[in-house]
Amino acid sequence: MTDIQRITVVGAGTMGHGIAAQAARCGFRVVLNDVTAERVEAGLKAVKHTYATGLAKGKLTEEHVASAEASLRGEIDLEGAVADADLVIEAVPESMELKRALFTRFEAAAPRHALLASNTSSLSITEIAAATKHPQRVVGLHFFNPVAVMPLLEIVRGEHTEARTIETAFALGKRLEKECIVVQDSPGFATSRLGIALGNEAMRMFEEGVASAEDIDRAMTLGYRHPIGPLALTDLVGLDVRLAITEHLFRELGTDTFRPPRILRRMVRAGKLGRKTGQGFYRYE
């Protein structure tokens, strides 16, 4: 089992900087990488905001924050960022072509013992791993937003992922203070497949006028004790992200459950992508 001390996170967006912040807080040495200095700087700024929030809520101490910030640095050179990593976690947009190209570069530049992980929420780990010469070292590590709060880590076993890779990933999850589940490489894994099915049906109900967005969400938060309703969650994740995932699942599984709702396509075309644009199923300041 690999002793992981140094982690490189590639992609400084919402998920990437969230993973980096959690890893640094839990005692790992972390490098946050992206293609421009501006993106890296934005990611590091977001990490500081995460820590400031934890400090204000009494969940972190000033000493803890200082230690975490000292353990984290930014880097725009990909090869340099992964050169001494024990684990590389990819958190870039959901493009198979992009991910495969990156994993080829990871394998060429990272140490031979390094594990290579993807934070993909729906794409095939086996297909990503096929871009490498050592697919046994490739695993899915699907974190959830916001990483600092959400307790789950979905570990995805590709067709060639070794048992010791899964063991290392499970041990890593515990060190990151996560509860882990292990799933086989299947479209949408467990979480995205179930979440998209519920979200799509909620959108169809809204489109049909069954109930308001607020009442559909309240049905799930109060009736089923979900922490957030399916439409509010869609706004949080991003309607464009949800559309890409459901299109992928529909291509792979072919069932009407995953046929993209018409309202989702219309809203994405109109630029109503949820929280990040200020409007989705709800309006945001």
List the helices and strands and how they pair.
Blueprint lengths: L5 E5 L3 H12 L3 E5 L3 H20 L5 H9 L1 E4 L2 H5 L4 E4 L5 H14 L5 E4 L6 H5 L8 E5 L9 E6 L5 H13 L3 E6 L6 H17 L5 H11 L6 H8 L1 H15 L8 H8 L16
Parallel strand pairs: 1-2, 1-4, 2-3, 4-5, 5-6, 7-8
Antiparallel strand pairs: 6-7
As a whole number of angstroms, the C-alpha radius of gyration is 19 Å
Average pLDDT works out at 96
β-strand percent reads 5-15%
* Largest sheet properties: 8 strands, mixed
Distance between the termini: 47 Å
Provide the CATH topology of the largest domain.
Rossmann fold
Shape: globular
The level of helicity is 40-55%
Q: Could you explain the architecture of this structure?
A:
- The protein has two domains: 6-184, NAD(P)-binding Rossmann-like Domain (Rossmann fold, 3-Layer(aba) Sandwich); 191-275, N-(1-d-carboxylethyl)-l-norvaline Dehydrogenase, domain 2 (Orthogonal Bundle), CATH 1.10.1040.10.
- The protein is built from twelve helices and eight strands.
- It has an eight-stranded mixed sheet, with helices on both faces.
- The protein is an alpha/beta fold and 285 residues long.
Keywords:
alpha/beta; 14% strand; 8 strands; 2 domains; 8-stranded mixed β-sheet; N-(1-d-carboxylethyl)-l-norvaline Dehydrogenase, domain 2; 285 residues; globular; Rossmann fold
Summarize the structure.
With 285 residues, this protein is an alpha/beta fold. It is 48% helix and 14% strand. The mean pLDDT is 96.
